[in-house]
Amino acid sequence: MIEWIVLVVGAFLLITSIIDWKVKKLPSIMLTAMLFAVACLNPANLWFGAMGFIIAYLLLEADFFSGIADVKIMTMIAFMLSTTNYLFGFILLTVMFGFLWKVLIKWRLRKEKEVAFIPVFLFVYVALYMLGGIV
Hints:
By secondary structure, this protein is mainly alpha-helical. Helices cover 73% and strands 0% of the residues.
């Protein structure tokens, strides 16, 4: 049986992916509220959330993605992970899917300057769920 939190976060990622793709701006309060809710519902995974934040901030500084919304989404997904192995898989999938996404978007839409990155997190979330790493 699927936990309700897994479905809520998945639906939230789907909605934010569509908004990011179309508008390229997300309300910060919405992301912060969802991050807070997921952190409160998964207090045992605080370490994973902290590590996810550090990696997200590192990727932000490396210009891998370009917004604080991406940092919040990555931290939120890290709070949902079950083991350290899935944390490393999450990082690897984010970098791999992100690189492929950026290459495909730049190739298809040459005039786009900013790439909507939250759809990558939706793909990573679904992949991690299928692998059993999301609790």
